[in-house]
Amino acid sequence: MKDNKSTIGLAGNLWLNRAENKFLGGDRIILLEKVDELGSITKAAKAVGISYKTAWDTINMINNMAEKPLVDRLTGGKGGGGTSLTTEGKKIIAHFKTIQEEHRKFLDNLESRLGDTDSLYQFLRRISMKVSARNTFSGTVTKITKGAVNAEVTLSLKGGIPLTATVTNGAIDNLELKTGTEAYAIIKASSIIIGTDLHDAKVSARNIFCGTIAKIIEGPVNTEVDVEIGGGNTVSAVITHDSATRLELKVGGHACALFKASSVIIGVS
Asked: What residue stretches are annotated with the Mop domain (predicted)?
């Protein structure tokens, strides 16, 4: 293993990918184990040395990306709620540990054969980009309708939830999108509108997801609201503090998240 910062030492960091996108790694597995052990996101975050907000956002991302939810959160109630792993979550951890043992053996053999890893390092830097948008959902393209300039793309998220995006025809060609393609929908939290009792409302926004408020973080100017919309999917929105007060939003209450199709960015692995 070399000390030069521009070279890669194979330290045994294992990632499970979904559609070739990073999904679960050792740090997230440890977080899940602590959630299962302590029954609390707050305690788990403290145990692994991260903030509560980071832990919450990570668990939201994991549930959004997984085929089935790995973490089950109970809001309110006599016991004040709690957090635990689902059967699927426990199974994933067991599988990860088995793979990790074999992965370490593989890296021991591979490291001696790699030689100069500078070019590999540069490649990994290019593909390890992170996005600032709070909402990233995986899904399958179920429909593409092309117009003169733009195209409408419908993704089916977990639980069969449809999400609509508007992109250019050029983007369709560049991303090689077609029915059945695995893709990602990315939406900034500031692009999402929160409302209540909107099941029968007539609005121009193509995407209306209704569900249960899972978390509210109040600030002097803005308030963050997370809405669980089913299928293990959670939508995060940032609205003004005054709007949150006027809507009388409460954890465990009903709310709907709205956003335009043009606010959705489509990506593929």
From this structure: 130-196, 202-268
